[in-house]
Amino acid sequence: MNVHQNARLTPQGRLLMVLRIEAEGWKVSTAASAAGLSQRCAYRWLARYRAGGEIALHDRRSTAARYRDRAPSERDAEIEGLRRQRWAAIGSPASSACRARPWARCCAAWAWVA
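Now predict its structure.
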């Protein structure tokens, strides 16, 4: 089990809190304070338990279960082609001298004024 370091309860502690509320008849506020949680968080774990049982008290993944648009579309290919064309027109990435002196292009453009 991989419990993150800021978690107040492990799945066993969540189950204990929920069983105190469901089986032993504790008030939610009392069970929450005994577990070191807010009342709102206790209600959240209680709702998860009622919806899915003991397995619902385990940690869930933080990543999305599925992605809306996984396959590259024709538009993606077009954008990639345009990016490649621009890259070829510009050449290699700017040298460190150009990055260190971004004013160089402005000075070169205004050289005729001086």
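The first helix runs from residue 11 to 22.
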